[in-house]
Amino acid sequence: MSETKRPGAGAGTRPVLLRGVRPLGGQPVDVLLADGLIAGIGSSLQTPPDAELIDADGAVLLPGFVDLHTHLREPGREDAETIATGSAAAALGGFTAVHAMANTNPVADTAEMVEQVARLGQRAGLVDVRPVGAVSKGLAGGQLAEIGNMARSAAAVRVFSDDGSCVSDARLMRRALEYLKPFDAVLAQHAQDPRLADASCCAHEGELSGRLGLAGWPSVAEESIVARDVMLAEHTGSRLHVCHVSSGGTVEVLRWAKARGVAVTAEVTPHHLLLTCDLLSTYDPVFKVNPPLRPAEDVEALRAGLAEGVIDAVATDHAPHAAHDKDHAFGDAAFGMLGLQTALGVVIETMRVTGRLDWAGLADRMSVRPAQIGRLTGHGRPLAVGEPANLTLVEESSSWLVEPAALASLSRNTPFAGRELPGRVLATFLRGRATVRDGALAEASELAEAAEASR
Ligand SMILES: NC(=O)N[C@@H](CC(=O)O)C(=O)O
Which residues bind substrate (predicted)? Predict the structure, then answer.
């Protein structure tokens, strides 16, 4: 299945009239959704007799967010997350599509595996779940995975990544870039030179890691891989995407590569836009993530890079972990943080409230560009008549308290617990059907019916 032009997608769902929404934060208008599409935009639109009316009262209408980097843990770690629970967290966070990373157990390195992930995503019916295929068999970095089979499969994989591990062997990296080029696919690199930062390295290398006695993860382990990879991308003419950029030095390398015309894109996570490595002085494992939190100068460079567009996209790196993997002494705990439901609030706080991005800019970095990078033609589209109704409606003036137990994820490892975040997702629409309304998931029965109809 491909997310884009499913024949009849959205047909049969009840029309929705959104009254008084502000597209990209502009002037209030009415927007009609019908047959999976935006069917009308204007003032005082006629309400079709069977339409559901949502009084939006000035809420901001945005293209549904697209996450390039989500760990859904199924198959293998359904105690931490399932495709259904991760999809629920995504929809509640305003997402209409997510890319499910390949580091599951078994690894998503064959056509049958990626098709199974896509099928489970369709069954959940809350967001378009786009499987990411592994670059190397078993993420072991030795032999190429079945890239061609995954790209040609019904799941039509366009993003390949060994995320969690770096494709560190330069020859394998070169071959992978060459191999995926004819499919117009992209290689999403987890940039971490394993000789400079191995699996024991868990804190930004600096004075603090020394004082805390935690093994240091130096920024150069990321920057040197990105420098090598942009040269390989230039040499092969293939598309490279850099996952979770964490250092100001990497932003410099990306700026240089883009100026040369290299086909490179990059993402930053919400947690790297907000949190700094000082938090590690608590030794609280909720702040353990890969790559690690960095000093304030890096956070500033990441915000500036995202505002400028050198960093193309925000991606959550949603990494759920069960308490029995996370609640350990810092060095022994699993790497990773939840991200889907808090992403918008953190981006508003770091990029909008600070005046670095307007609503159009936020939509560009959270929807338009991620959709382009993943080659998702039905998402990240302009808010115009005839376009697919993959949308999110945000109440700008509301804030909400992050309570781990209230999140839809099966895991609780949010670093934002107890924080007040701005912007509430009121509703999310997938092909014109509300997956979220009034800030809560649509009824399970309604969702099951819709998922059945879309098969
Ligand atoms: N980002 C993380 O901290 N964790 C990721 C994998 C990884 O990138 O290490 C995970 O799968 O948990």
Answer: 71-73, 103, 290, 321, 335-336
Peptide bond into 106 cis (omega under 30): yes
Asked if 59 contacts 395 with a C-beta cutoff of 8 angstroms, the reply is yes
Cβ(271) – ligand 1 distance below 6 Å: no
CA distance 268 to 305: 9
pLDDT digits (tens, 9 = 90+) for 369-398: 999 999 999 999 999 999 999 999 999 999
Please name the residue whose Cα sits nearest to atom 2 of ligand 1.
336
Based on the residue annotation, tell me whether 193 is a catalytic residue of this protein. no
pLDDT band at 455 (very low <50, low <70, confident <90, very high): low
Calculate how far, in angstroms, residue 335's C-alpha sits from the geometric centre of ligand 1: 5
Q: What ipTM was estimated for this complex? A: 0.96
Ligand 1 neighbour 389 (Cβ under 6 A) = no
Question: Would you call 32 helix, strand, or coil by DSSP?
Answer: strand
Q: Which value, to the nearest 10 degrees, does the dihedral of the CA atoms of residues 73, 74, 76, 78 take?
A: 80
Ligand 1 pocket test, candidate residues 79, 135, 290, most atoms within 8 A of CB: 290
Three-state secondary-structure class, residue 13 = coil
Radius of gyration of the chain (CA): 21
241 assigned binding-site residue: no
Ligand 1 centroid–CA 319 distance in Å is 6
The CA distance from 294 to 315, in Å, is 17
CA-closest residue to ligand 1 atom 7: 164
Element spanning 120, H or E: helix 111-124
The two three-digit tokens of residue 47, written as one number: 């309400």
pTM of the model: 0.96
Token pair belonging to 437:
């309304």
Taken in order of first residue, the domains within the chain and their CATH numbers are: 16-61+386-405+416-454 (2.30.40.10), 64-374 (3.20.20.140)
Query: DSSP labels for 187-244?
Result: EEE----TTTS-TT--EETTHHHHHHT--EE-THHHHHHHHHHHHHHHHHT-EEEE-S
204 is in an annotated binding site: no
| Contact 70 CB / ligand 1 (< 6 Å) | no
pLDDT of residue 173 exceeding 70, the answer is yes
